[in-house]
Amino acid sequence: MATSTKERNRRTAMTGQTTRERPQATGFDVLNDAGLNKSTAFTEEERDRLKLRGLLPPAICPQPLQLDRVMANLRRKESDIERYIFLSALQGRNERLFFRALIDNIDELMPVVYTPTVGQACKEFANIFRQTRGFYISPEDRGRIRANLDNWPDQDVRVIVVTDGERILGLGDLGASGMGIPIGKLALYVACAGIHPAQCLPVMLDVGTNNEQLRDDPLYLGVNRERVTGQAYDDLVEEFVAAVQDKYPGALIQFEDFLTPNAYRLLSAYRDRVLCFNDDIQGTAAVALAGVYASTRISGLDFKDLTVMFLGAGSAATGIADLMVTAFEAAGLDEQAARERLWFVDEKGLVIGERNDLAPHNLPYAHARGPMDFAGAVKAIKPQVLIGATGAPGTFTEEIVGLMAEINPRPAIFALSNPTSRAECTAQQAYAWSHGQAIFCSGSPFASVTVNGRDYRPGQGNNAYIFPGIGLGAIACEAERISDAMFLAAARALADEVSEADLAAGSIYPPLSEIRALSLTIAVAVAEVAYEEGLARRVRPDDLKAAIAASMYEPTY
Description:
Layout: H1 3-6, H2 28-31, H3 44-49, H4 63-75, H5 80-93, H6 95-104, H7 106-113, H8 117-123, H9 125-128, E1 135-137, H10 145-149, E2 159-163, H11 180-193, E3 200-205, H12 212-215, H13 230-247, E4 252-255, H14 260-270, E5 276-278, H15 279-299, E6 308-311, H16 315-330, H17 335-339, E7 342-346, E8 349-350, H18 374-381, E9 385-388, H19 398-407, E10 412-415, H20 427-433, E11 439-442, E12 449-451, E13 454-456, E14 459-460, H21 467-476, H22 484-496, H23 500-504, H24 515-532, H25 544-551
């Protein structure tokens, strides 16, 4: 590929905002390029200059009119998976119109583009596959990953979301069908934080799958073998990370939906070497911590006095606990006192020191206590906050919610598992079983609920509140690393944006409609920490917020 074709991108001040410029493209090359296509919005002058005469209907439809058509067609679809397919096709043919629709209708479309619909889209990935999107790496690519990256058309990649598909949401091992997750996450990076689409790269590390149903499906699109493990797996990841550092130095790598042991091992291996984070561990932690911060404004409790119990002891739950230790320390507790406020229950009961079946990441939270089941632990420990990250629906039973309401005037109940079908309890159940006492949030959206004549708007502890702003802040200042202090700052910034009106409605998160402004606020907080910690490589501008805001992508034509 000639240099004039490869070097398409121009940089602006902070994020290195990218534009896709192909001055040689005309005719169907323009119409078939999602980054350039405006379809019927091309002006008379553009139709002449780009040799589009005769290739389009004569009417000129400005983008707002196109958007009306898109939304009308979308709303006629009978199911969310049909809407997902429709939007995916739109993204493939007119990128700016897709992102304009997503930004302007984020409340309506985020559940379609991402959770909960993306879970179904991943399960049906092979059946609904229409157009390739993203970059695939398999064991057969060993020794040539860096060379293969040259096949990717965009040269200024700043954010990479990578998965190996082994633990997709609460759905388990979906192999290469998990590619829907990186694609969806990066759509949110663009819509929520203004990262240019050309700076985003979805990656699937396809090392096989242990899901026999997938391997028996003739339509399955991934490597048809059991998963590669051990040193061969680690070597493939290492080659991928090294290739990224060579091809896209300074790009942020977001690890997504890896099985807990791999998630922790990879984060430990790379967090101090390259710009990276694990969203399931650290992003979930920050959004949950923000919700806990905000909940104290309803309960009237002091954050440092809280006792928190987790149902589930995987990467998400322990990631939340790890960040909470940092938050408790910032509130004045020492590390031991901080850990003593955090308790775990897994499928075998309370996580305690005498158990010999615990993973390394569980050991700091294994306290000196006798064996207990879930209900017994709630009665004995009396937590004010209950956080579910199990992937097991219905585990917050009427008994558990009732116990929390007996112990606390305003218990905080976080049912964080995704998609909606995997939530530990529903919003209706939490409010009804607690007689309206619960401060409830979930990982996937629930509609408003009326209990005893009062309306409640349950908050959604969606990682999209956090990870886009983290990414924007990191690339804005060209951070060398992502530190724990950055996630703590992000959680505080998000919690501070919860209004009194939100709290009065029962929500401990701001409306999703504000997410673009929230991402900017978080990006500024993250960049400020990077400058304070000496991790920023870019010179700090006089007005940091204005500089970042000016760099954010606006998909308008």
